[in-house]
Design brief:
mainly alpha, 288 residues, Helix Hairpins, 8 helices, single chain, 2 domains, Four Helix Bundle (Hemerythrin (Met), subunit A), 2 strands
């Protein structure tokens, strides 16, 4: 693509035919079949599932590697840059809708369904005489007693960790824009370590909830929404940490310039999105 004075011509970079989509399809097929076999106690199920994960990892590394090579070769001009920015923007929007659905489920349960069931006391007395319209509620007659998770403790520490990670990532971005490579690398390294620390504390929190508080996926609506929201958020933190680790590896190899570093920006956008989701989650799941 020819680019001069910020004006691009009509040509658009088209990558060479790639084997990675079919490799990814094979990986997902193996994972789906392996999971189905494993749940039905078929001996080869777990091995097929492991093979699927391995093939998927190979696909991710190979496909991302090809994209990085194309970027480093200067194949991406203004049109591609615009497409990448729009693509990442729409991807994050889809993630916003993903979490909006789960927060909507939490809102419906807390604000609508539990009070309504309590309002119709004559009906629920016949079906479930011990029901109380309070939150967190043991919303099921066979739910064992459990303790709700406190906001202050590990959740508050994890909030401070994610807020700090957002600051260190922004500091790394400043270093990149201002040509301070050492600041870029150090800021990214600290952010990755904070992401790993967050995941470690969340694993400790889950173990404590499951073994000592009686809080699990079967603990009524509260347990289901708690693990659904925090679990999916933790998965996004893991993905974001992997993305930032990749950016750190690229920075150590001398990739990115202050003019061209959208790969870094895309990972930063994603991480800041994850931070914002956690703040909302902390308020409505842990605190209120």
């Amino acid at each position: 693509m020819n680019v001069e004075n910020g004006v691009h011509d009509a040509h658009y970079f088209v990558p060479a035919p790639s084997r990675w989509p079919i490799v990814g399809s094979i990986a997902l097929f193996c994972m789906a079949m392996g999971a189905a076999f494993a749940m039905n106690s078929v001996g080869a199920g777990k091995w097929l599932l492991i093979a699927g994960f391995a093939i998927l990892l190979w696909m991710i590394v190979g496909w991302f590697g090809d994209v990085i090579k194309e970027a480093q070769a200067g194949d991406y001009g203004l049109q591609v840059d615009h497409s990448l920015r729009w693509g990442m923007s729409w991807f994050i929007f889809s993630e916003v809708m993903f979490f909006a659905a789960f927060f909507g489920a939490l809102f419906y349960t807390r604000v609508i369904s539990v009070p309504e069931i309590g309002y119709f006391s004559d009906t629920h007395d016949l079906l479930w005489s011990s029901f109380q319209a309070v939150w967190p509620a043991a919303t099921g007659p066979k739910v064992d007693a459990y303790t709700a998770m406190e906001a202050f403790g590990l959740p508050a520490i994890n909030t401070a960790i994610l807020l700090t990670s957002g600051a260190t990532l922004t500091w790394a971005h400043w270093g990149l824009v201002e040509g301070r490579r050492g600041q870029l690398k150090l800021g990214l390294a600290i952010t990755v370590l904070l992401g790993c620390l967050f995941l470690t504390f969340q694993a400790i929190e889950y173990h404590h909830a499951w073994t000592e508080m009686g809080l699990n996926l079967g603990s009524g609506a509260y347990g289901a929404t708690f693990f659904m929201l925090t679990g999916f958020h933790g998965m996004h933190v893991l993905v974001g940490t992997i993305m930032l680790s990749t950016m750190l590896g690229r920075a150590l190899k001398g990739h990115f310039t202050k003019e061209h570093h959208f790969g870094f920006e895309a990972a930063a956008w994603y991480w800041h999105f994850v931070d914002v989701v956690w703040l909302i989650l902390f308020v409505f799941v842990y605190w209120l």
